[in-house]
Structure formats: C-alpha cells, structure tokens
Amino acid sequence: MNYSALFQQLLPEVILVVTALAVLATALAIEGRGKPAPLSVISSITCLGLLLAGASLILFPATGEAATPMIALDPLARLFKGVVIALGLLAVLLPPAKDEIRQPGEFHALLLFAITGLCLTVGTNHLLFLFVALELASLSLYLLAGFPRTARASEASLKYFLFGGVSAAFLLFGLSLIYGFSRAATLPEVATALAADPTSPLAIAGLAMVLAGLGFKLAAAPFHYWAPDVYQGAPATSVALVAAASKAVGLVVLVRFLLVGFHASGGSAAWGGIVSGWSVWLSILAAGSILFGNLLALAQTSVRRLLAYSAVANTGYLLVGLCANGAAAAGAALFYVVVYGLATLGALAVTAAVEREAGDDSVASFAGLVHRSPLQALALLVFMASLAGIPPLAGFVGKFALFSQALAETTVGTVSGITWLVALAAVMSAVSLYYYLQVLKQAFVTDGETAATGIGIGHALAIGVPAVALVVLGLFPSLLLEPVSTAVFVLSDGRVNPL
Amino acid sequence: MTPAWTLLSAFAGALLVLLLPARSAALSRVIALAAATIGALAAGAGCLAKLAHPDAAPWSFDRDWIPSLGARLHLQADGLSLALLLLTGLVAIAGILFSWNIDKRQRAFFSLFLTIIGGVYGVFLSRDAFLLFVCYEVVILPKYLLIAIWGSTRKEYGAMKLTMYSIGASALILVGLAAAYAAAGGTSFDLQHLAAADYSPGFQAWAFPVLFLGFAVLAGVWPFHTWAPTGHVAAPTAASMLLAGVVMKLGAFGALCVAMPIFPEGFAQWRGVIAGLAVMGVLYGAFTALSQKDLKFVIGYSSVSHMGFVLLGLAAATHWGLRGAALQMISHGVIAGLLFGIAGRVVYARTHTRDLAELRSFDLWRTLPGAAVAFTLATAASMGLPGFSGFVAEISVAIGLWESFPLLLIPLILGIVITGAFSLRALQKAFFPVRGETDAKPPKLPPLTWPELTAIVLLLAVSLAIGIYPKPWLVLIDDGLASPLFQSILP
Residue B344's closest CA among B236, B448, B430? Predict the structure, then answer.
C-alpha cells in the first residue's frame, strides 16, 4: 500500500483526528493547572480544525487511483465530506445550555471523532470499512447525546445506544450475508455477483437487514423511536449533528447500496405494476414514515420533539426519491437531505436561542419572538417555510425535484409510476405546514416577552448562514443540484437513466 | 419600461420596505405606493403598446434556471397577461391607499403586501409550469401572516383555514404537474412542451381533475369555497381586496392556462361536472349571501358566486366563454376590491361594526354620503347592470354558455336575480336604513379621506371604462386566447 497516497487521499480525516488529539491535549494541559478548560478556547480549536479539513478538501482534492480498495474517491464522496464538515462546523457553533458541557475537551474530541467517522463513511464502497467507519461515528454520537448529566440526556443516550446497538447488529449481520453471497467486499463486486443471480435469497435477506440498520440511522419509521428523546434531551450541538450530518451520511450509504450494489434487484413499487424488489419495501417504509412522522408531529408541544417527528417525515420524502431506483431522483434526494439538514440545524439554533430566553423549548416559548429579535424570527420563518416546502426557499425546490423526478423515473410512457406514493407525500407535506405554522404563529402573531438578551457571534452565524444558504439555494438551486446529480450519475456509472 | 418592471418593482419594494430603519417606518407606505404605481404603469404601458401594435411579438424573457430539472425562467406578456397585470397593479394601488393610515407594524405589512403582489405578477407572466408554481406558492405565507397579524373576526382561524386550503390545493397541483412532467418525458416544464405532449385518455381522466381542482380551489369552486368568505372577512381590508380581487384569479388563471391546455381530453371529459359545480357556486354563493348579517360576509359569498361565472365560462370552452371568464376575472377583481375597500375600511374604520342591523343606527347615507354613493355604484356594478364591467363579462359568459350548455342558462338567470336581491338587501340595510321618529340621532362620522376617495374613484372608473367601452379589453384577451395553448380547447 502506498502510504503517502493514502495520507493525501484521507487528508481531511487526518486533520480532524489530529485536531481531536490537540483538543484533548489542550484541555488536559489547562485542567492540569486546576481550572476547567474554557469552552471558547476548545471550540475555537475545533472550528479551526474543521476549517482546515474543509480547506484541504478544496485545495488538495484526492486524485488518482485509491490507495486501498477500502476508500472510494468519487465526486459523491468529496461532495458529502464537504457537506458533513460544513454541517459539523455549524453544529459546533451552537452554544450549549448553562452547565450542559462540563468537559469541553472530551466533548469536542468526540465531536471531531464523530465527524471523522461520518467523513470516512461517505467515502467508501467497502462493506467492512463502512461498518467500522459508521460505528466510529455512532459510538461517538451516543456519548455526545448523553453528555449533560441530566436524567433526560441519560435516557436519550441510553435509548439511542440500545436502538443503535441492535441496528448495528442487524447491519453487520446483513453485511455478512451479502459477503457470504457475493464473496466480495465492495459494492461494485456485489453488483457483479448480483447480475448473475438477481433474486438470490441470501443477498435479499442481507439487504433487508442492511435496510433495517440504515433505517435506524435515518430515523425511518418504524426504526425512529430513539429520535424524539434524543432531539429533546441531547445538547443542541449533538442534535444538530445527528439530525443534519448523520442523516445525510445515512442517505449517501443507502444510495451507494441501492444504486451501486443492488440496482439490479430494485423491482418496482408502481401502482398496478408491482415487481418484487427493494423498491417495494422502501415504499412501505417511506409511506409509514411520512404518515407517522407528520401525524405525530401535529400533536407535539415541544419544538425539539416536533423537529424529531418532522425528521421522521422528511426521511419518508427522501426514501420516495430512492424508491425510483434512478440517478436523477437519487440526486434530488441528496440535494434535499442537505437542504433539510440546513433547515433543521437552523431551526435548532433558533430553538437554542429561545431556550436561553424562556427556559424551555415549548411552542409557547416562541411567543413574541419577532419583537424580541426580528432577525431570529425572520430566520425561523425561512427554516420552517423551507421545511414545509414553501418557495422561494430551497426546501421547495428539493421537494418538487424529489417528487417529480421520482415520478418521472418510474413512469414509462404514460403509464404512471409511483404516483400513489408521490401523492401521499405531497398531501402529507401540505399537512406539515400546519405544525410548522403553529411555531411561526407564536413567533409572529402572539404577543410575548419582549426583552432580549442577544446571542453570541457564533450562535448568530449558526442561525444566519443556513438561512442565507436556504434562500440562495432556493433561488439558484443549480449551485448544488447540478454537482450532486453529476456525482450520482458518475457513481451509478451510467447504468441507470442518465440526466 | 418592460412588463418585467411589475415583478421587479414589487419584490424590490418589498425588500426595501423590510430594510427600512424603524424611525422611517412611515416611509413604507410611500415606497409601497411607488412600487405599486410603477407596476401598474409598466402593465398599462404594455397594454397600450399591445393595442397600438397588435401584431408585435410579445415581450418575453427566457433563461436557463435548473437544467437538471428542465425548469426555465420563462416569462412572456401576451394581451391576457398584460390585462391581468394591469388589474393587479390597480388593485394594489387601491389597497395601499385604503391602508394609508395603518399604524401597526407598517413595514412588515407593506412588505408582505408587496410580496403577494410580486407573486401574482409572476404567475400571470410565467410560461414555465415550475416557475408559475413557485410564484403561486410564494403568496401562501404572506397571506397567512397578513390575516393572522392584522386581521379581525376570528383572524387566526380564518388565516389557518385559508392557508390549509391553499396548501392542500397546491399539493394537488404538485401531483398533477409532476404526473404531466413525468408522462411528457421528464425533460421540461415549459407549458407549450407539456401541452404538446401526447397523454393517454385514461391518464388524462385522472390527472386533469387533480390538476384542475388544485387551481379551482383557489378560485373558490363549490364545495371547496368555504375558506374564501371566512378568510376574506378575517383579513385586513387591503388583504381582502387583494385576496378576493386578485389572488382568487390566480386559481382561475392556472385552470385556464395550465390545467386545461395540458390535458384537453381530460377537460373534455370533465367539463360537464365543472359546469355543474360552477352553477352550484353561483347559486349557493348568492343564496348564502342573501342571509348574511355581516356586510363583509355578504361580499365574501358574492365573490364565490361571481367566481362561479368565471368557472362557467371556462367550462363552456367556446371563444365567448373563455373571453367572458377572463373579462369576469378582471371585472370581479375591480368590483370585489371596491366593495371590500368600502365595507372594510371606509365603513368599519368609522363605525367599528359591519353588522347589518347595527349599521342601521348610523344612518350612513346621511352621515357618510360619499361612501353610500360609492357603495351604490359598486353594488350596481356587482349586480351586472349595463354600463359596468360586470354586465359585459356576464353577458359574454352567458353567450358562451348558450353555445355549449344552453340548459344551464336557466339556473344562471336565477343566480343573477338572487344576486340582485342580496346586493340590494345589503345596500339598503347598510346604507339606506328605514328609520322612525324615535330612533336616536346618528353619531357624526369623519368624512372620506383623500386616499380613500382616490382609491374609490380609481376602481369605479375602471369598472365603468370596461362597461362602456370593453373593446380594448376584449382585444387584449383575444390576443392571449390566440396562443397555441388554447387551440386544443377551443372548438
């Protein structure tokens, strides 16, 4: 193995790990003198490390042959490493509540390990490496969720860990079945083996297990039970990482599995033309997530829990895109997951600001936000409207592209494809506006506390950057949609319908 | 001055108003009025140019936007679009004048108001279904906020109901458009491209009603009209004017320029049902208006009734029918704006009631003669008396209907009679009450202000102009109807 090439190809991850160690060392050095490490110093180092990793991704793109079959150097990997680092950076900027994080050194080191794991996960087609990278991210995230020493955070962390542990077991079992079937450890080789025997029960059983495992990562119903508790109990930074970055990574892995590995056994979920295959299972997961997430979100009074159920519903929309088993719809889904991540992260950032003022995250705490801070209220409007799919914000373009491409790729001539699923998604997405409006109504219409204390510059960036990004991506979606679509097209090697 | 100035002025005005510092908030209404005037002037200039050179190529703008989706920034201003743009501009000016002395959160109010106007302009100009849908959806949140913050009478309920109906209808449009896009090859959202594609009749049979209903809900089609009276009553005056006057027209415009041309065979299968629902709307709206106690509810239900005429004209699908539908859109836009303006602003701001029984004690024709005269004229226009725009529009629809569904003229005439009845009832109860010797002396009311008077004169003049000399408007509408889009619909 060529180690210098490997070093160059994994430079962002190397920088992240070095930063994590530097954070730990700094914290240790300061604590050694008898006082706790200041959060500002530690998070500054973390931000610097993330910025360097992002810069290395842009300045020194990985080129040539991959140094080991364990890593993939395709455009999708590079793009989503960038997305993960950017979302991670925004997540770090979210301030913790008072006394929430008592050991900032450990917290930020774990955060960097989680981001490293996520970066490695998006950049591999190798089954074993995928599992190791995903577990690096997951184990760090379990700890990040339970960092505050409160009953609620501990419950969240334990639930997350138990569900995650079981799903990891499913994933590993599925991967071993796939390996047993194909005698191959990378997805393109699995595809070759599958082409010879597309209905192998072993491979199908393996895929089913993998879907269950990844369904947990994506919080798809019925694997979502951890989500509301984690969203409510964990520190804002951890939630942001789980909600935005981890979900994007889960989707990338799913896209790789389905489009690269198992494209041949997709089948069809079209009404009246059902062909057995993973599209059918995925359509059921999607429909379940959309219904379950949206209907339960209607009943929430805590904004964090509301966002958790909205996450379940949005996973459903993403799965609609994958159901089509085509590059364009998968590209739209990947666009949407980024846009969704930005909107959720921003909404969490505003929620964090409201929590500091009002003490909790109930919908009623948002009352009078527009008088307290017009800019925060405006940003909240952007995030909620984007989540609900109102133009000119990116969430609208994402949903529209997702639904229309999913329909276009399953429609043959004028025989409609998965219209039933798209119609369900569109109608439930309209329903979702109701609960997003409940929050906006408090913020804009209801009168409330008007005295404001203001927020720090980092926190303001965590609110402002996603808001601006959503407006820009809404007006000029091609900025992200084109690279993502190209990346998926390259990934699927032209086998699925070209753009 | 190209028609693009309509869009630009509205959105630029909205942004500018939003960015105003708090101490110059009073400037916001001036900026809003300027933006609306620029828009109206641009539209008016476009109309005049079109009338002067009917054969000149229409102004258009066509750029790549989202290549992987096939969506383009494609705007085009034919005669129909220009006429509707002008209507929007005029109602916008009148709405701002009627809101001249609004004092609560001025900047936000005018910014949201201009955003709605911009979205409306965008819909009327779009020739790309995706762009049209974007502009169509842009108005949803501003509508909600305008009603929920500045409204009256169960405002939060009315706002939420209106918004959920709108977004639900949008979901139908999304499904219909996505289905058309997919079946047409999944490469372009251009309306011409979608209309030229070959869809199977079985596909059109379900895709058309989905798409059409999505648009028709916003046009107040019976039985999905209930959001309209509730929402319009709850809305602040300027918003009622805009919602009833212009935003409802978006639904009719979408039905005419998107749903019908894309799925002409589906339309042919369903037009009987549409005509039936439209007549029901005319009758139901009229009868319900007859029994209302709140002056604004009378106008709200009369809007449902009048929009029924638009849908009837569409269902007739003859040249006269479509002409009448388009003319009724413009005519009702002006008249609804006028009625809501007088009832919601001129009367309510002075009497603090819209209850027909309570208005009796104000003896309005003595205490507020200007408003009484204006409302009488507006009522005459609304009833469709000759000389006003309503007459020309309704007679055109009736001619169209005679050509395709002659039997429906019978209930339609009943509807017109009832319209006369509820209009006169409301007029008499609100403005010309019968008063005995024993009644208390009515309180003194402040006279009409200049902005109010200007807005009233502006809208009345337009209605009269259309009623007395409809030709230029018909020329403009015919120019739009000559588009290849409508060839598959017209006989």
Answer: B236
- Please give the share of chain A, as a percent, with pLDDT higher than 70: 98
Which of A289-293, A355-359, B437-441 holds the top average pLDDT?
A289-293
**Residue to test with chain A: of B163, B167, B181, B200, most A Cβ within 10 A:** B167
Q: How far is CA A342 from CA A349, A387, B138, B200, in A?
A: 10, 10, 20, 41
In sequence order, what are the residues at sequence separation of 6 or more whose Cβ sits closer than 8 angstroms to the Cβ of residue B82? B3, B43, B46, B47, B50, B476
Q: For residue A337, what are the domain limits?
A: 266-499
Instruction: State whether residue A498 sits within 8 Å of chain B by CB.
Output: no
Instruction: Evaluate whether residue A444 is within a structural domain.
Output: yes
Q: Measured between CB atoms, which of A417, A427, A437 is closest to B182?
A: A417
Determine, for residues B66 and A481 on separate chains, whether the beta-carbon distance falls below 8 Å: yes
Most A-contacting residue of B18, B19, B69, B190 (CB-CB within 10 A), to test interface: B69
Domain membership flag for residue A198: no
pLDDT (tens digit per residue) in A337-357:
999 999 999 999 999 999 888
Three-class HEC string of B132-161: HHHHHHHCHHHHHHHHHHHCCCCHHHHHHH
Q: Do B163 and A433 touch (CB under 8 A)?
A: yes
Whether the pLDDT of residue A402 is over 50: the answer is yes
The string of pLDDT tens digits covering residues B8-17 is 999 999 999 9
Check if the beta carbon of residue A375 is closer than 8 Å to that of residue B39: no
The pTM score is 0.94
ipTM of the complex: 0.91
Q: Please state the length of chain A.
A: 499
Quick check: B46 pLDDT over 80?
yes
Closest to A328 (Cβ–Cβ): which among B68, B148, B200?
A: B68
Cα–Cα distance list, A433 to A188, A314, A428, B173 (Å): 41, 13, 9, 16
Q: Do B138 and A477 touch (CB under 8 A)?
A: no
Could you give the number of structural domains in chain A? 1
Chain B residues within an 8 Å CB radius of A413: 183, 200
Question: Would you state the pLDDT for residue A498?
Answer: 34
Residues of chain A in contact with residue B66, where contact means CB-CB under 8 angstroms, are 397, 401, 477-478, 481
What's the whole-number mean pLDDT along residues A154-181? 93
The answer to whether A414 faces chain B, any CB pair under 8 Å, is yes
A188 is a domain residue: no
Task: Determine whether the interchain pair B141/A385 forms a contact, defined as Cβ–Cβ distance below 8 Å.
Answer: yes
**Residue among A408, A441, A445 whose CB faces B181 most closely:** A408
In the prediction, which pLDDT does A497 show?
40
- A390 reaches B (C-beta below 8 A): yes
Question: A478: which chain B residues are within 8 Å (Cβ-Cβ)?
Answer: 65-68
Cα–Cα distances (Å) from B382 to B191, B227, B395, B470, in that order, read 34, 21, 13, 16
Round to whole Å and give the CA distance between A158 and A160: 5
Tell me the C-alpha distance between A38 and A52, whole Å.
Answer: 22
Q: Is the pLDDT of residue B129 over 90?
A: yes
Indicate the burial class of A72 (C-beta count within 10 angstroms; 0-12, 13-18, 19 or more).
buried
Alpha carbon distance B460, B463 (integer Å): 5
- Taking one residue from A and the other from B, the number of pairs with CB-CB distance under 8 angstroms is 119
- Helix ranges (H only) for B53-100 are 79-98
Q: Which residues, listed in sequence order, are joined to residue B354 by a DSSP beta bridge?
A: none
Residues in chain B within 8 Å Cβ distance of A331: 68
- Of B135, B156, B163, nearest to A445 by CB-CB distance is B156
Contact A444 B148 (CB under 8 A): yes
Q: Chain A contact for B149, CB < 8 A?
A: yes
Residue A351 lies in a domain: yes
The SS3 call for residue A302 is: strand
Mean pLDDT, rounded, for B447-455: 88
**What does the alpha-carbon distance between residue A63 and residue A68 come to, in Å, rounded to a whole number?**
13
Q: In this structure, what token pair is assigned to residue B343?
A: 């009832």
